[in-house]
Amino acid sequence: MKVRLLVPLVLSLLAVNTPLLAEKKSVDCSKGQSLNQGLKNIGSGETLTFTGTCQESVAIVVSGITLIGEGTAVISGESSVDVVRINGVQRVSLQNFTVQNGKNGIHAIGGAAVVLQNIVAQSNAQTGILVEGSSSVDLSNTTSQNNHLHGIDIESGSSLTGNGNILVQGNAVFGFNVATSSSATLNSGTLTAQQNVLGIQISINSGLFLAGPAASIRALNNFTVGLTMVSGAHFFSFGGAVTTSGNGLDGIDLASRAGMDLDAGAQFISFNNGRDGLHAEELSFINLFNNPQFSGVPGFTTMQVYGNVVNGVSLLSNSQMHMFAQAQVQSHDNVGNGVLVDDGSSMLLINSTIKNNPTDIQLTFGSRGDISNSTVGTLKCDATVLLRGTLGLTCPH
């Protein structure tokens, strides 16, 4: 009798203490369901999945939620309103869908923090992905294309961390823009900017950082410049690789006190661009260096510039290029000069080969050169130039 009474009691206790399986929350826009309505019914820590094409603009106002598209999921908005807007909320994850036809595809603002994975942002009236107002985005395996302003825009003290493949293409102004004291860090994977009016711009005291050899940039076939730094902006590569090719003007352009540091065996290749492989002006500077004792990376930090329509390297209006320890420049087969130094600019050249250009090195109008341990073909310089180094070259020449 006692055994028979205990059995239902045990079963009752198990039922009370066994958690119910969480109900799967999903929306099927192909059946007329609303994604906004679905978002109203999830809380922090929950996930909403959706399928089909959702013809609506979405506001995310709850922290800690995940929105996942299944199959060929799309959110399609109107040109006057952002497709997905995240304002001031944290730990939001968006995965596996397309945003299109809105004002901005995805807009993070007001200190928002969002993770974007496998997103396509396309054909928006302004920008595919806009991050501003001290917001942050963790981005991986994402494409932003054919937008009427920028592909990806990081503004006003905001930040981006990138991994995997990031593609910006066919955008009407910048493919990738970091501005107004913002930052972008690529930890791994490749950022490719192609067929934009301008590929990648870093401006107004902002920075772009390649964190190691697993990170790379490719700026290809953009209408004007492949990669530009301007107005106090800075680019730093710790062993990463940069390739710029087929751009209408310069492969890389630095202006207005901008800077570029290549360290730890970083590789920079710029070829077949419509003007210069590397162009620096207005008090800008380039540093190439690698000390294996500090970096832990053997070998040379290397800049290769060749086949460009004007110069391999141009240093203008009091700009500088310095090289230290294990660093080298290879400049050949450019249509103009291998290296041009003009208007009070300066160059420290070591371990390098500058040859097979019509003029390999030209220094003019108060510029300065220090050339050691290098192979130089032809040199031209005037009486205003200061030149020294182990090669015994003198000016005028």
Question: Would you spell out the secondary-structure blueprint of this structure?
Answer:
Blueprint: H1 2-17, E1 26-28, H2 35-40, E2 47-51, E3 53-55, E4 58-60, E5 66-69, E6 74-76, E7 84-87, E8 92-100, E9 106-109, E10 113-122, E11 129-131, E12 136-145, E13 152-154, E14 159-169, E15 174-178, E16 183-186, E17 189-194, E18 198-203, E19 207-210, E20 215-220, E21 227-230, E22 234-238, E23 241-245, E24 252-255, E25 259-263, E26 267-271, E27 278-280, E28 285-290, H3 292-295, E29 301-306, E30 313-315, E31 320-325, E32 327-332, E33 337-341, E34 346-350, E35 353-354, E36 359-363, E37 368-372, E38 375-376, E39 379-381, E40 386-388
Parallel strand pairs: 1-2, 2-5, 3-6, 4-7, 5-8, 6-8, 7-9, 8-10, 9-11, 10-12, 11-13, 12-14, 13-15, 14-16, 14-17, 15-18, 16-19, 17-20, 18-21, 19-22, 20-23, 21-24, 22-25, 23-26, 24-27, 25-28, 26-29, 27-30, 28-31, 29-32, 30-33, 31-34, 32-35, 33-36, 34-37, 35-38, 36-39, 37-40
Please tell me about this protein's structure.
With 397 residues, the protein is mainly beta. Helices cover 7% and strands 49% of the residues. The chain has 3 helices and 40 strands.
